[in-house]
Design a protein that fits this description.
The longest helix is centred in the last third of the chain and has 30 residues, at 324-353. The model is unreliable at 1-28 (pLDDT under 50). The protein is mostly helical and 374 residues long. It folds into two domains: 19-215 and 325-357, HUPs (Rossmann fold); 235-321, Tyrosyl-Transfer RNA Synthetase, CATH 1.10.240.10. The chain contains 15 helices and five strands. A three-stranded parallel β-sheet has the order 1-2-3. It has a two-stranded parallel sheet with strand order 4-5. The protein is elongated. The chain starts with 18 loop residues before the first helix and ends in a 14-residue tail after the last helix. Bound molecules: adenosine monophosphate and tryptophan (TRP). Residues 37-41, 72, 75, 162, 165-166, 174, 176, 180, 183 line the site of tryptophan (TRP).
């Protein structure tokens, strides 16, 4: 299992509790945190990597801080997509979050493009951050390689829209997985540059990492990710979880049942660290080292524990699907709550920057029609 390692101020939780309890046991973010913001692209089914790396933390944090969670559709369009499918993708992501325990009574949930000020602030950050810094972003380089036919500028400036998402609400804590830490550095850089140039407006946001910073996929090698098809989905049935786990990679030393293994070199054992009790983990480690158990025995216990963590999410999702209008209501209410906040921040930003046109030219008598334009 990866050593639970944390952002300063967010020490590891008690290892080995089932995921839901583990989330509840997570400590609060640093006391200085006043507002949480995070987001995800509406890009397909949520998996246990999203859950352990980010969502479980979101659920825990909503008890302790004001939280805002955004479905970032404007980020999603930097990749090829089908416009007709976007609304369903957005609703599906919202359903997944609510099923996972995001509570709209305590957290604000909304769709990024419903608050246009995000894009306006992103433009401002575009004028402050040098091109060279953006070109160095690992995710930009990866995506440019993966979609060579569509290296649009949005792909490059993606982290500045992300910075704007956070800054527009003056959020200072951002729960994400490890792969987003570099983007968070960029967000800090962007707001620092703004504050230096125009005066102190934005706090510097810090990442809040969960103990599972990076969850590997079923291949035991690469990060769990939908695009690699190595995931266990949060909505997977017990049968499907088992169908995926049974052939999943274990320690290569255990070719035969009688071959002993090294649990620390086995991703299945790492997953026990997220889902199983200390007693079960000790049983799995001992059985692996002594060849007292087979990998199949080890996986069966894990499958049972994963099912126990996923069952309440599946049930909540099924209940929500019976009320399709509810998700839209929640997203509409979220946007209505946030619009005035975003508007106020942009007013402050424009004022600092000498961009007073909206105020100066507000309420003027209507201009006489220009010739040819009515
Ligand atoms: P994505 O699925 O890449 O859009 O990521 C959504 C959120 O989940 C981000 O905060 C990621 O850092 C986090 N995340 C995604 N995959 C993993 C993983 N395999 N392990 C840990 N965190 C992850
Ligand atoms: N880039 C993030 C991801 O791919 C999604 C995101 C957009 C985000 N804006 C954000 C995350 C603001 C945290 C804060 O997962």
């Amino acid at each position: 299992m990866t050593t639970p390692e944390e952002t300063p101020g967010t020490p590891a939780s008690e290892p080995g509790l089932p995921a839901t309890e583990e989330a509840a046991a997570l400590p609060a973010a640093p006391a200085a945190i006043t507002r949480i913001f995070s987001g995800m692209q509406p890009s397909g089914e949520l998996h246990i990597g999203n859950w352990l790396g980010a969502l479980a933390n979101w659920v825990a944090l909503q008890d302790r801080h004001p939280c805002i969670f955004s479905i970032v559709d404007l980020h999603a369009i930097t990749q090829d997509y089908e416009p007709a499918e976007m609304p369903a993708r957005i609703r599906d992501m919202a359903l997944g979050w609510l099923a996972a325990g995001i509570d709209p009574e305590r957290s604000v949930v909304f769709v990024q493009s419903a608050v246009p000020e995000h894009a306006e602030l992103a433009w401002i950050f575009n004028t402050l951050v040098p091109l060279g810094l953006l070109e160095r972003m690992t995710q930009f380089k990866d995506k440019a390689k993966n979609q060579p036919e569509n290296v649009n500028s949005g792909l490059l400036t993606y982290p500045l829209l992300q910075a704007a998402d956070i800054a527009i609400y003056k959020a200072d804590g951002v729960p994400v997985g490890e792969d987003q830490v570099q983007h968070l550095e960029m967000a800090r850089d962007a707001v620092r540059k703004f504050n230096n140039r125009y005066g102190e407006v934005f706090p510097e946001p810090q990442p809040i990492l969960s103990p599972a910073r990076k969850v590997l996929g079923l291949d035991g090698e690469r990060k769990m990710s939908k695009s690699l098809n190595n995931q266990i989905g949060l909505n997977d049935s017990p049968e499907l979880v088992w169908a995926k786990l049974a052939p999943a990679k274990t320690d290569v030393r255990r070719k035969k049942r009688t071959d002993p293994g090294v649990p620390e070199d086995c991703n299945i054992f790492a997953w026990h660290g997220f889902f199983s009790s200390p007693g079960e983990r000790a049983w799995a480690a001992e059985g692996c080292r002594t060849a007292g158990i087979g990998c199949r025995d080890c996986k069966q216990v894990l499958a049972k524990n994963i099912d126990a963590a996923l069952a309440p999410m599946r049930e909540r999702r099924a209940a929500l699907e019976r009320h399709p209008g509810r998700v839209d209501e929640i997203l509409a209410a979220g946007a209505a709550t946030l619009r005035p906040i975003a508007r106020a921040t942009m007013e402050e930003v424009r004022e600092r920057m000498g961009l007073d046109a909206r105020v100066r030219y507000a309420g003027q008598p209507p201009a006489p029609p220009l010739r040819g334009i009515d």
